Amino acid sequence: MKGYLKRDDDFQERRKKIAGLSDEELKARFWELAETIVNPLLKMAKENTSPSIERSVLLRMGFSSLEVKPLVEGAIERGLMGKGVGHIVYRVAKEKGITIREAGEKLIAGDYWDTAIEIFKGGR
Fold first, then answer.
1. What is the pLDDT of residues 16-40, one digit of tens each?
2. What sign does the dihedral 50-65-113-110 (CA atoms) show?
3. Which residue range forms the structural domain that includes residue 97?
4. Into how many domains does the chain fold?
5. Nearest-5° angle of CA 48, CA 49, CA 50?
6. CA 120 → CA 20, 28, 108, 114, distances in Å?
7. CA-based, 20 to 30 A from 69: which of 5, 17, 18, 119?
8. pTM value?
């Protein structure tokens, strides 16, 4: 057929690397390769976030769209974005013995950011 690329069949050549492996060894090799592919994705997901992701988390925690903006901006201004804004609100609530809603309201008002900084940058 014209216009199609012909793929050289090199299956037998590539198969030589694994031809002597048992089913268990093949299974182990598969999972090893799967982890090699997935681990960088998991690492990236754990270490990176965005304002839109954090807003979404806060909305699901019960905050309104008007409330999430100052929370996300407050975290960005203080270099805490990578900790997760929902996590910040949760940890402040736990530290102060108040509800998540109360902690969010206090953070929106500008209070408790020093507590958040201490928790996340002070190693608590």
1. 888 899 999 999 999 999 999 999 8
2. positive
3. 51-121
4. 2
5. 140
6. 51, 38, 18, 10
7. 119
8. 0.64
